[in-house]
Specification:
By secondary structure, the chain is mainly α. It has four helices and no strands. The longest helix is centred in the last third of the chain and has 16 residues. The chain is globular and about 40 Å long.
Length: about 70
């Protein structure tokens, strides 16, 4: 159900930032979220962290216009 959701990242960040203990949020179970919180205890804003990770992933996935020009012409 969560896989195609356009706000999956925001949903997960909300659950992590607010330490919501029950339910599926952002595609993660309660157990998965607890484990993630234990692994990264110093994170103060999951929203900022996940947004930065998403931006970086999108930047790396987007073709660089300069490189496309070099290859084509």
């Amino acid at each position: 159900m969560c896989t195609g959701c356009p706000v999956r990242t925001e949903c997960l960040a909300y659950a992590l930032d607010h330490r919501i203990e029950h339910g599926i949020w952002g595609g993660m179970t309660e157990r998965e979220r607890r484990a993630l919180l234990r692994r990264r205890p110093l994170v103060t804003s999951w929203r900022r962290l996940l947004q930065a990770a998403r931006s970086e992933q999108e930047r790396l996935a987007a073709p660089d216009e300069g490189q496309a020009w070099d290859v084509a012409g």
